[in-house]
Amino acid sequence: MSGRLVGVLGGTGPAATAYFLQRLVERTEARCDQDHVRTLAFNDTAIPDRTAFLLGRSDRSPLAALIEDGQLLEACGCDLLALPCNTAHGFFDELQGALGIPVVHMVRETAAAASAVGLARIGVLATSGTVAADLYGHEAARLGVDCLYPDSATQARANRIIFDEVKAGRFVEPAALEALAAPLRAAGCDGVVLGCTELSLAFGGVTRAAGLPVVDALDVLADCVIMRAGRPPKASKNLSLRN
């Protein structure tokens, strides 16, 4: 068989996983089926809630399930793994340590992509779990990029969109992103990161919000996976900004 086999550790959430697989297809430079990335996806919807655990609202850690699923994909012959859930990267080190194949670090790659296009202060829209763990802050600081999270009212709006609307299968007006991004621009951010794959699903196709460029972590992950699988991405000159 040709090309590396990519395991997709999904289910967190299921619609975002399906959208990630769609973006893999859409962002690969391909003329036929055989030009696309070989993938094996496990949409494990039984993985415990990541945000609830990180915030101390649940004692059910998702780590054991993440490791079990990752090892299953490895045993099936996958050469690398994609984890299309930003918040799950709060367990990245333990997951990677339990596997013999590399896991693409979506948060790290997104911070690097933002830095590569000259962004100096990113405003990150994500779950409260991602914010509490400061996942983007840690990775951005390594690159000399400032990271700002929303004020409490804006974070509450982001949570409602993620958990009460997207995960519930409800349509979200694209204009809702403007309301989330405007306070970040007012705080001096020069770019907005969609740091939750449910937000990627809700606002797919949006290139700017409140006058700021949008950096989509899910698209960054897709491009990184495509390249590491040995295929050319359509957005090879720019990993972070939507084309």
Task: Please explain how this structure is put together.
The protein is of the alpha/beta class. The chain has two domains: 109 residues, Rossmann fold; 111 residues, Rossmann fold (3-Layer(aba) Sandwich). The strands form two sheets. Strands 5-4-6-8-7 form a five-stranded mixed sheet. The protein has a three-stranded parallel sheet with strand order 2-1-3, sandwiched between helices. Helix 1 packs across helix 11 and helix 5 crosses helix 11. It is globular.
Count of β-strands: 8
- In percent terms, what proportion of residues is strand? 5-15%
CATH class of the largest domain: Alpha Beta
CATH topology type of the largest domain? Rossmann fold
Average pLDDT level: 95
Order of helices and strands: EHEHHEHHEHHEHHEHEEH
In order across it, which strands form the biggest sheet?
5-4-6-8-7
Topology overview:
Layout: E1 5-10, H1 14-26, E2 38-43, H2 50-54, H3 63-75, E3 80-82, H4 92-97, H5 106-116, E4 121-125, H6 128-132, H7 135-141, E5 146-148, H8 152-166, H9 176-186, E6 191-194, H10 197-202, E7 208-209, E8 212-216, H11 217-228
Parallel strand pairs: 1-2, 1-3, 4-5, 4-6, 6-8
Antiparallel strand pairs: 7-8
Short description:
By secondary structure, the chain is an alpha/beta fold.
Characteristic key phrases:
243 residues, Rossmann fold, 2 domains, five-stranded mixed beta sheet, 11 helices, 8 strands, globular, disordered C terminus, Asp_race, amino-acid racemase activity, Asp/Glu/hydantoin_racemase
